[in-house]
Amino acid sequence: MACVKIVSRLKGSFCHLLLVIALWLSSYQNVVALPLLPKPGQTPSTSELPSSPNSATFQPIDISPTMIPHYPFSGEPLPPMYPSFPKTYDPVLTGRCPVNFSVISSITGKTASDCTQSLSTIVGNVICCPQFNSLLHIFQGFYSNHSDTLVLQNVVAGDCFKDIISILASRGANSSLSSLCSVKSSNLTGGSCPIKDISTFEKAVNTSKLLESCSTVDPLKECCRPVCQPAISEAALQISGIKMTLSDNKNIVGAPSEVDTLNDCKGVVYSWIARKLRFEDANTAFRLLSSCKVNKACPLDFKQPVEVINACRNLAAPSPSCCSSLNAYITGIQKQMLITNRQAIICAAVFGYMLQKAGVMTNVYELCDIDLKDFSLQAYGQEEAGCLLRSLPADLVYDNSSGFSFTCDLNDNIAAPWPSSSSVTSLSLCAPEMSLPALPTSQTLGNSGCHLGGVHFLLSTILVFVSTLLY
Q1: How far is the C-alpha of 69 from the C-alpha of 66, rounded, in Å?
Q2: CA 132 to the chain's CA centroid
Q3: Domain named At1g61900-like C-terminal: which ranges (predicted)?
Q4: What is the rounded CA–CA span in Å between residue 32 and residue 57?
Q5: Which residues contact 417 (CB under 8 A, 6 or more apart)?
Q6: Residue 41, phi-psi category: left (phi > 0), alpha (psi -120 to 50), beta (remainder)
Q7: What are phi and psi of 165, to 5 degrees?
Q8: Burial category of 175 from C-beta neighbours within 10 Å (exposed 0-12, middle 13-18, buried 19 and up)
Q9: Quick one: angle between helices 154-170 and 129-144, nearest 10?
Q10: How far apart are alpha carbons 151 and 177 in whole angstroms?
Q11: What are the tens digits of pLDDT across the range 33-60?
Q12: For residue 318, which phi and psi values (nearest 5 degrees)?
């Protein structure tokens, strides 16, 4: 295990004591906290930093605490990892949505927190949009409790959608969630799904099987051995009127109208499930299903890496020009958003495959020390403070003293895996042999004991590695 960088140079037996402390600290769940900004001209001391929040529901991988320091440059625009505290106000509602929004205030509050104005763009793919979609499903089911239909009429849907956005914005959320998450008021109407009323739905669908499959979604199994997802697909097919079997997916390729109908019918199925479950249980289930979806693909936008290809083609040894081009390219893409540990593995494979296809056959990740965390947004001014989000659902947490916080995984220097095959489609995160890259050895770390240098961390980062990902 490598010793971490701290402010002063430490040698000898104290390093061994530090390692003992590291092992002790690794038993705790940790989060990256975004603390309250200091007053202009005030330099905070280490003792003024807030403590890390309590552990969350899921604990897939233990990491060590990394506290992002107070932003020292007053008068300059805040970087995205230093959000301002949200301003709240009373929302202006249309008065035409026949729903008591206070009943679902727990879900709207969670959504507003997850989609805060300052962070929504960098956590939209993993945290904000999955929670926003869950809110809409729950709202649709809640609305159906006072009607005989599982959807809203177009006019009412438009008014209710405006009210939802207004309520979220009044609690500090991004007012542009519709465009950020590609959601419209028509998502509440059932679209082209032919069956929308409750009575016909319950006659056409095996509701007992559906409820049994989705009332409790197993976070450890659902993404690789799904139970709820096929039940939803089967129910959507049964109410869609499309004559096909679940295994005959080739029939719908190239037929957008049927694909749209199935997706619209899935929205109706979600509404029925939300109608039957408690708000919190439905939200947990929907978020877990979303995590299965978002972790199947890399959300980053890779532009053609021409300079990297030119500098790194036909390499057999480390090249300063190659590594400089590669690091510059990755610095650009990592500014896009925070991603999960599983997305980072897929992103590394996708980008590596792009390079291989262009003639870069050498493992440049290894030559240039590219880590998984390099594909995710980095903490401002901290070369070692990259953050990967958990593959399981996570929420932003807000309190009046420490601001926003969120849980990170694999915050340490886990090497990015270079694709070993010619096709990225062969990558599977469900295979039992799938694991993280090998831990660094003493040979790769050097044999001169602890190498400690100065960085700007206010708290040390203790490196604790694990060998496998959750589920």
Answers
A1: 9
A2: 13
A3: 296-369
A4: 16
A5: 345, 348, 349, 352, 365, 372, 437
A6: left
A7: -65, -40
A8: middle
A9: 130
A10: 21
A11: 433 334 334 434 433 333 333 333 333 3
A12: -55, 135
φ/ψ region of 180 (left if φ > 0, alpha if ψ in -120 to 50, else beta) reads alpha
Angle at 433 between CA 427 and CA 437, to 5 degrees: 75
Q: Are strands 408-409 and 32-33 parallel, antiparallel or unpaired?
A: unpaired
Tell whether the torsion through CA atoms of 336, 342, 344 and 350 is positive or negative: negative
| Residue 380 structure tokens | 């401002």
**Three-class secondary structure assignment of the chain:** CCCCCCCCCCCCHHHHHHHHHHHHHCCCCCCEECCCCCCCCCCCCHHHCCCCCCCCCCCCCCCCCCCCCCCCCCCCCCCCCCCCCCCCCCCCCCCCCCCCHHHHHHHHHHHHHHCECCCHHHHHHHHHHHHHHHHHHHHHHHHHCCCCECCCCHHHHHHHHHHHHHHHHHCCECCCHHHHCCCCHHHHCCCCCCCCEHHHHHHHCCHHHHHHHHCCCCCCCCCCCCCHHHHHHHHHHHHHCCCCCCCCHHHHCCCHHHHHHHHHHHHHHHHHHHHHCCHHHHHHHHHHHHHHHHCCCCCCCCCCCHHHHHHHCCCCCCCHHHHHHHHHHHHHHCCCCCCEHHHHHHHHHHHHHHHHHCCCCCCHHHHCCCEHHHHCCECCCCCCCECEECCCCCCCEEECCCEEEECEECCCCCECCCCCCCCHHHCCCCCCCCCCCCCCCHHHHCCCCCCCCCCCCCCCCCCCCCCCCCC
Instruction: State the pLDDT at residue 101.
Output: 95
Q: Is the dihedral of CA 268, 271, 276, 277 positive or negative?
A: positive
Evaluate if pTM is beyond 0.85.
no
CA–CA dist 155, 247 (Å, integer): 37
What pLDDT, on a 0 to 100 scale, did the predictor assign at position 242? 86
Q: What is the pLDDT of residues 67-112, one digit of tens each?
A: 333 433 344 444 455 545 667 889 999 999 999 999 999 999 999 9
Cα→Cα distances 89→169, 172, 197, 398, Å: 9, 9, 37, 17
Query: How many other C-beta atoms can be found within 10 angstroms of the C-beta atom of residue 182?
Result: 10
Nearest to 33 by CA among 72, 66, 80, 71: 66
Strand order in the sheet with 32-33: 32-33, 403-406, 397-399
At 174, which amino acid appears? Answer: N
From 47-51, 166-170, 400-404, the region with the lowest mean pLDDT? 47-51
What are 123's two structure tokens? 């956590």
125 in Cβ contact with 115 (< 8 Å): no
Cβ atoms 414, 372 nearer than 8 A? yes
